[in-house]
Amino acid sequence: MSEYLPGLAGVPATQSNISEIDGDNGLLSYRGYAIEELAANSSFEETTLLLLDGCLPKPAELDEFKQQLVDNRRLKFTTRGMMKNLPPNGHPMDMLQTVVASLGMYNPNIDCLIGGSACNDINYIHNTTVKIMARVSSIVAMWQHIRNGYDPVGPRDDLSYAENFLYMFTGKEPDPMLARIMDVCLILHAEHTINASTFATLVNASTLASPFSVIAAAIGALSGPLHGGANQRVLEMLQEIGHVDKVEEYIDTKLANKEVIWGMGHREYKTKDPRATILQGLVNQFIEDRGGNVNPMFELAKVVEEVCEDRLGSKGVYANVDFYSGILYAEMGIPADQFTTIFAISRTVGWLAHWREQLADNRIFRPTQVYTGVDRRPYVPMEQR
Ligand code: COA
């Protein structure tokens, strides 16, 4: 019998050519392209095509894809009506999972997934991908208004994916620099090898479930505090610390009490998470752009990172992607309980890429277990118990 490893730690669950992490050297690449180059030069739409198709698109291909996304941003009034009947105090991730699953009701035809090669119908695969990608951001943005009792803001055809999301979410013309930062945040979170939600994607995809169901399952996996959600806690931690003078005492007390510092450490990286380095650069650019006239949280975060590096660096614990994303989202007017939904919008790309990869060479997941229960025994009649 093979050895049981809790959480399948270190056990390869699939073969994939979508992304690669080199945790010792702090490197991440999508389809062979370094994350730093994509963050500096690409757009979320282009990175999406790269992750889905495996190569950078030609200009006409990218234009066509952008137009397809624009054409699919609207939600049916029945979907909006359903959202208006959801409890406003529910967690946005539960809302997102519910609404994405409900989209499958409008797209019931999954027969094309059945057969020798489930990936034969590339039109179905592409059209479904566009529908899901375009609608997840509309759902999240519209929920922000609906849960506060207002009608949602409709999409605008002249805006990019990131700009339109911010416009629909806040109802205001997006600040160009913050929109570019959002675009980079979406690129950075789009894919990260086989994590819990991507594994959930593979398991669901392998049953040939509808892609709406597959993505809803992945959203459910991401909603747990051990996966998405650390950036919300980073923001709360910074608010609790309150002032740069209190940082050292706060961190030292937490460490003495064996508590974790949110936004620090990563199972895969033993250096600083390369995505955190990119976000830190954007924070610095933003502070410079605003002439230093920014929320004191930014300065506070930098000091917290310095102190943590001093105390935890020797253990290979450095800032992760969640450390700076929360304060940037807050600056965009996004409340903390919507941070994980933004993660989900972005990671939907990675999930869809893995869905396609799984379908192209599918075998249903059916792992085994190590039974630890009692031996076989006779049934005990009620009166003898
Ligand atoms: N704060 C304080 N200490 C930390 C730490 C953190 N955030 N992350 C790791 N450490 C310490 C551990 O306590 C351990 O110390 P020890 O050797 O003295 O016992 C050492 O660093 C090694 O950490 P380990 O628990 O082996 O790391 P891991 O790979 O199991 O954990 C995380 C990775 C992400 C679960 C962990 O770093 C963590 O909880 N981080 C905070 C939550 C977070 O930001 N999550 C988002 C990840 S993108």
Model description:
It is a single chain. With about 375 residues, this protein is mainly alpha-helical. The protein is built from 16 helices and 3 strands. The mean pLDDT is about 95. Helices cover about 55% and strands about 5% of the residues. The chain folds into 2 domains: about 45-225 and about 345-360, Citrate Synthase, domain 1 (Orthogonal Bundle); about 230-330, Cytochrome P450-Terp, domain 2 (Cytochrome p450-Terp, domain 2). It has a 3-stranded antiparallel sheet. Helix 8 packs antiparallel against helix 15 (about 320-330). Coenzyme A binds near residues 266, 312 and 315. Coenzyme A (COA) binds next to loops.
> Sheet with the most strands?
3 strands, antiparallel
Bound molecules: coenzyme A
- Corresponding CATH architecture of the largest domain: Orthogonal Bundle
Mean pLDDT: 94
How many domains make up the coordinates? 2
Alpha-beta content class:
mainly alpha
What is the terminal separation in angstroms?
Answer: 36 Å
DSSP summary, beta strand count? 3
Series of secondary-structure elements, N-terminal to C-terminal: EEEHHHHHHHHHHHHHHHH
Strand content: under 5%
